[in-house]
What we know:
This protein is α+β, with helices and mostly antiparallel strands. The protein has eight helices and 14 strands.
Amino acid sequence: xxxxxxxxxxxxxxxxxxQRIAAAKIPSSKLDETLNLASWNIREFGKARRSExxxxxxxxxxGQFDLIGIVELRDDLxxxxxxLQILGPTWRCVYSDMIPDAGGNRERLGFxxxxxxxxxxxxxxxxxxxxxxxxxxxxSEDSFWRAPYMASFRAGSFxxxxxxxxxxxxxxxxxxxxxxGRLADWIEAxxxxxxxEDKDLIVMGDFNIPSRDDALFKALTKHGLKISxxxxxTHGTNLEKDKxxxxxxxxxxxxxxxxxxGGSLDFFVDEKSIKQLFPGGLTKEKFTxxxxxxxxxxxxxxxxxxxxxxxxxxxx
Length: 316
């Protein structure tokens, strides 16, 4: 990472931010052994130009991970380019097209990754709702407001597909539950495909699920998607840390691929702490448009899976 010659204020802010990052106790990843994976809704990233300080802070946070699924990436990619420049020449991104209507909100979904730790395998696609033939056309009865986006990667001997999504908020929980249910069905159909690129499937993003006890979460996990053990605790991803809007779930072939490390990264702390990063002072609302109103959610994955593969061969 190269922050370069920053102002004294940004240098002070970066040191304060690093203390907050250290409090998250994110273990370092090891090449060909572990991978740090995160999901982060960066509020309206690209809608309005971020300050110089915010761009450096975003890069510092993103740089703690090897592969990050980004939600609310907007049509203008200028700020993404600024962040990638600070992260350095080994960082790459792959992203969907924006959707211009009100439901799409001019949003993209994407993945930012460090090619030293993880390799893009070539698959990048949107998840399209199932179609039926009507006359001469094949049409979908329902749709995703923002089509989920998936890509294939390899880290060590671990090949996997990661899918990220931003589920609608909408006018009713019923319509949200229906969209979540359609996504769960699509994921299950993809998982059991005989020609699927990789069977290890990681699903993440902003599902707008306030609690894991409600019907929305049950709709998402009806086909067996599971939360990694370290995320079963109180890892809320809103700034108050009491809502479970963001999730990382998986259908692992090798359950041992998921370590006991994971959680959320609290870059906010509280309103009194805003001035440590922005000494001129910001309201909490304005702070969220500089960094975000969501905290990154992360897990660490074991990528040295050769032993697991050999054991499965022996067991038949």
